Amino acid sequence: MIESNYKESSSKTTSGALPLLAKLVSYLVHPIFIPTYFFVYLMWQFPYGFAGITEWQLQMRLFGVFWLTAFFPSFAVFLLWRLKFSDSIYLRTQKERIVPYIITMFFYWWMYYLSRNFTDQPEALKFFFMGIFIATVFGLILNNYFKISMHAMGVGGAAAAIVLTSFFYETANGIPISIAVLIAAIVCTARIIVSDHSLKEIYIGLLVGIACQVLAYLVVV
Questions:
Q1: Domain positions in the chain
Q2: How far apart are CA 164 and CA 156, in angstroms?
Q3: Which of 14, 168, 181, 216 can bridge 127 by disulfide, Cβ–Cβ 3.0-4.6 Å?
Q4: Are 70 and 36 in contact (CB under 8 A)?
């Protein structure tokens, strides 16, 4: 009797803990943070790409990336919600995602434009920013037909960018690539657990994120 109650209690705890963990993963690896994470990765893995700028300038450059690619898009979503243009900040419907896509597209394009004029940061940022811009364009188009997963696009693009960066600098980065692929798998699994996305929306989001980085690499490099 006691053993039966223990198993039932343990099962409930596990079933309740898994969605909570999946939500935490979804928040920590949200698409708006991907550009900032990738910039930090370049600072760690390719510090020589930032030759010519001081530590303070590098920190401000990182802050600028976060400010333009994370803060402003999320603040815009918050305003849309407060002005009653959307029902929540979670963008659960395709209609609610249209304006955020357009706003994010603008900031990604601006980051790509700025990266073309910077000679004191890694060249990889050029194709990365172009890649995420193209991904938002395709995301907006496909949003008319189904609710493509933004999370999957984000982690797919990040993993592809890390692989392409290794090709670009001719450096073997087995561990970072493995971690990026593992994180992409974990995030996609988390979205299946806690979101109303179908497997099709997850897989297509993943493929779009990867394909857009590859396309940007071929065009920019």
A1: 18-220
A2: 12
A3: 216
A4: yes
